[in-house]
Every structure is written in structure tokens, then in C-alpha cells.
Amino acid sequence: MRASDIAYRSLRADIIDGKLPPGTVLAEVEQAARLGISRTPLREALSRLSSEGLTTPHQGRGVVVTDISLDQLEDLFAVRLPLECAAVELATARADPEIFTELAERFASASRLIDAGGTTQHGYYALVGELDAAIDLAVANPYLLQAQRQLRTHLVRIRRLSHDNPDRLLTSAAEHAQIACAIAARDPRLAVAATQVHLHNSLRHLLASAQHSRPSVSREDILHG
To answer: Do 79 and 124 belong together in one domain?
Structure first.
């Protein structure tokens, strides 16, 4: 793997995980030394991060990690809706029904993965990730997947601002089960309708939560709804 690729992946992961929070200046000399590479591949990595909107040019040499805010939610969902609807519609024609039938069954029993006390087990997030991956694999459209990848990057960053909401997660699990069932049944209209309902409910809940108390927003709603 090229040095620029290693630097890009390392810095990108640190930004998304919050290890490099918004406002952090990524100076070329310091980051090159930290990552053990020359400044030429580092500049390439920083350029890729800026193209994704994760960083922006800073005075002098280097970049600064961009800010994130729950105020970006409506803009993100405005892009997310058509992309995800297109993805599930394509998936209904190309997916293996057995895979999505199994996923639907697992979402139907996902309550055991969600703690009543308010903390969400990693197993539930892994399950949602499996559904996303199964849809991506079925879609097999590199242009759509690239657009979704960049969007998901920003959604993951926003989830760091929020906390889990078990009640919403239980409802979300049922919505995910409906989407998986529709794909398994090869019903594009139902899959799109289920996705629209799911994303509408997610955004409505997020906005309501943000108005009352921003820390109460569910990270699952932001990432997967």
C-alpha cells in the first residue's frame, strides 16, 4: 500500500472516531513526522480528506478538521433519501432473497441487542452494518456506492454528538425489518416506501430531540435511522 493511502486511512479514521476533533490543525511537518512519511504523500492524503469535506485549507501549510453540527441534519437527509431509495430499489432486483429474509428475522428479534437501560450493544450496530453491506453488494453500482460512502462519513461524525435512545432503536429495528422483507420479496415499491417512512421518522425524531436537548439525539438515528 502506498504511503499516501496509509496516511489517508489513518487520518480519516482519527477524524471520524473523534481523535482529531473539529478545529484540529493538521500541519504538514508535524503530521509527516507523526506518520513517518515524507510531505509529498502526506499532501496527497490531506487533499483527499479535503475533497471529502473532512478538512479545509488552513493558513500556511496544512489543513484544519472541519466543524460538524446537528444543524446539518436536514441537508444530509435531503441527499440521503434519494440515494437510499435508489439503492433499495436496485437491490430488490439483484439481491439474494435468503440473505435479506435472514436479516429481517434478526431485526425482528433485535430487542435483545438493545439494553433497556439506555446503552446500545455493539451487536445491534453491527447488524445494521450487515444490512447496509448486503444492500451495497446487491446494488453493485460503484457510482451510487461512492456517493453513499461520502455521505456516511459525515453521518458517522455527527453521531459522535449524540447518545443512544433505546425506544427509537426498537422502532428503528422494526423499520429495518420491513425494508429487508421488501427486498427479500423483490418488491421495489414496498422497499422504497419502507425506506421513505424509516428516514422520515428518523429525521423527525432527530429534529425533535435536538430542539429539547441536543445530547439526547440517538446515534443510531443519525447513522442508520
So the answer is: yes
Number of structural domains the chain divides into: 2
What average pLDDT does range 162-171 have in this prediction?
76
CATH assignment of the domain containing 28:
1.10.10.10
Cell numbers given for 16: 471520524
- CATH assignment of the domain containing 186: 1.20.120
Question: Which residue's entry shows cell 453491506?
Answer: 133
Question: 95 burial class (0-12, 13-18, 19+ CB within 10 angstroms)?
Answer: buried
Give SS3 for 69: coil
pTM here is 0.76
* Neighbour count for residue 211 (Cβ, 10 Å): 10
- First CA to last CA across the chain, in angstroms? 35
Q: What is the pLDDT of residues 90-110, one digit of tens each?
A: 999 999 999 999 999 999 988
Range of the domain at 103: 70-223
How many CA atoms, within 13 angstroms, populate the side-chain half-sphere of residue 182?
A: 23
